[in-house]
Specification:
CATH class of the largest domain: Alpha Beta
Distance between the termini: 9 Å
CATH superfamily of the largest domain: P-loop containing nucleotide triphosphate hydrolases
Structural class: alpha/beta
CATH topology of the largest domain: Rossmann fold
Low-confidence stretches: 51-69
Largest sheet: 8 strands, mixed
Helix content: 40-55%
Number of strands: 10
Radius of gyration: 28 Å
Bound molecules: guanosine-5'-diphosphate, magnesium ion
Mean pLDDT: 85
Strand order of the largest sheet: 5-4-6-3-7-8-9-10
């Protein structure tokens, strides 16, 4: 998952590693020797020798190389000595690595303002602080980026389970988004998710626009054993959803999941209709659904939907397809609302509750 994101990050890690190795190497070379220490450059060479031949750990071991022969061999030696060293990175050291990071983020579908924010955080984490270098210089880059991403994704985190548990019943949830992104499928998945947690669910066939949409939701209703409240195709979606809410109240159901027709953010009439649905049915939670593979298009749609109606959270579908991963980060940032779930396939259990660490682990290639 997200292999392309990992590939793109390699440039950032490499650029930072090279800088760190250069800096530590320079530090070792220029350090003022303490009493009883061989001169710093000799020490560097000696340590490098020892690293290569650890058995020859004799104080009499002859130090041959006073000065590294060339930059390459110097770097190679410094590389073996950076472990357990400390380094303070300055702003100019980070220009190249941060440029590589920004490019990697942009190429992974992270929107520009979000990429800039991440770069800013990574920079403030790295600049000026004394950093201890472990066995792997790439870790420094990873840790800084991991912290920045987790912070960004945790800002508006909402625990869906907690939210449902505390909300007044029936909880009314409306799903909106453009066509074909997975709204109806996600409704069925969320229904199953809630049923697994012992909530009773009613489905509202609010997509009265597209031929076959009501039947599609009914198939899911039948599979899951759920009541589907419907009107005829061409009917008023607000009225169907309103009826479903009345049904839920009369039958003590916990949650109403309401489908709506896909609409383009550019279609004024359909966006007006969506506002009307929201006005009439007063949902507790409006979920914007889009697909991770749509990249920056999905981010732009999220922004425009959110300007039109108050989005409470998002579901990003098709992350199992060749998604770059950046759109999840961007949508959370742009809407200022959490990503609630990720769709990871076409069957009911293919829904992962969004957890910042879960995504970041996968983006960084550690899971
Ligand atoms: N691979 C994959 N396909 C999905 C996912 N979610 C939905 N789909 C597929 O996307 C297509 C459109 O889904 P649908 O729910 O009808 O979209 P809607 O028009 O927004 O209601 C269907 O073929 C779904 O099976 C997902 O997470 N992964
Ligand atoms: Mg649909």
């Amino acid at each position: 998952m997200f292999n392309r994101f990992k590939e793109k990050l390699a440039g950032f890690k490499e650029a930072l590693s090279t800088k760190v190795i250069e800096k530590v190497g320079a530090k070792l070379e220029n350090r003022v020797p303490e009493a009883n220490e061989p001169p710093a450059n000799k020490q560097l060479a000696q340590k490098a020798e020892q690293a290569q031949h650890p058995v020859l750990d004799s104080p009499k071991a002859e130090v041959q190389t006073a000065k590294p022969k060339n930059r390459f061999s110097f770097l190679e030696k410094a590389k073996s000595l950076v472990f357990e060293q400390e380094v303070i990175l300055e702003e100019h050291d980070l220009e190249e690595p941060l440029w590589a990071l920004e490019m990697a983020l942009l190429e992974s579908d992270v929107a520009l303002p979000v990429a800039e924010e991440i770069v800013k955080e990574v920079k403030s984490d790295l600049v000026g602080a004394k950093k201890k270098i472990g066995a792997d210089t790439g870790r420094l880059a990873e840790d800084a980026l991991r912290n920045a991403l987790v912070n960004l994704l945790s800002r508006n985190h909402l625990d869906f389970d907690e939210y449902i548990a505390k909300a007044e019943k029936p909880v009314k949830i409306l799903f909106v988004g453009v066509n074909g992104t997975g709204k109806t499928t996600s409704i069925a998945k969320v229904a199953r998710y809630l049923m697994d947690r012992n909530y009773s669910v009613v489905l509202a066939a609010g997509d009265t626009f597209r031929a076959g949409a009501i039947e599609q939701l009914e198939v899911h209703g039948n599979n899951l054993g759920l009541k589907v409240v419907k009107h005829k195709t061409g009917g008023d979606p607000a009225a169907v959803i309103f009826d479903a809410i009345e049904y839920a109240k009369a039958h003590n159901k916990d949650v109403v999941l309401a489908d709506t027709a896909g609409r383009l953010h550019t279609n004024i009439n359909l966006m007006d209709q969506m506002r009307k649905i929201v006005r009439v049915t007063k949902p507790d939670l409006l979920i914007f659904v889009d697909e991770a593979i749509a990249g920056n298009d999905a981010v732009e749609r999220a922004r425009l939907f959110n300007e039109s109606v108050p989005i409470g959270g998002s579901i990003l579908t098709k992350t199992d397809a060749d998604a770059k991963g950046g759109s999840a980060i961007s949508i959370a940032y742009i809407t200022g609302k959490p990503v609630l779930f990720l769709g990871v396939g076409q069957t009911y259990p293919d829904l992962v509750k969004f957890e910042p660490h879960w995504l970041v682990d996968r983006l960084m290639g550690e899971a």
